[in-house]
Amino acid sequence: MTDEELLAAIDHSVQAPINSVQTNLKAVSESLSQLITNMQESLEREMRSNLEIMEGRFDSQAARLDRQGGLLQTGSRWTGRMNEWAERVDDLLEAKEHDIAELRRRIEKLERGGNGQSR
Questions:
Q1: How many CA atoms within 13 Å lie on the side-chain side of 106?
Q2: What is the DSSP track for 47-64?
Q3: Distance CA 77, CA 82 (A)
């Protein structure tokens, strides 16, 4: 066997395992690529699902806050009206007390005969 034939034989015997390794690397690379793609799609689906759940919760929270805001606004208006009513009643009661005091003074004056003497 000549040197060239020996080199060709060695080259051929080394080339077969290299080809095998390259084929295995291609298979692993494709498998890894497919795994990454599947993982990405799975994560996207899960994120969409969780986002929909969160949006639903935010919607119910917004409705609850709107309802509570309405109740607070209604309560505030009612309290304001009650305060106005209470002030009007207080003013009317004060006027009545003043009128009653004036009537008592007049009755006492009449009972005394108008000049401060008792009958």
A1: 6
A2: HHHHHHHHHHHHHHHHHH
A3: 9
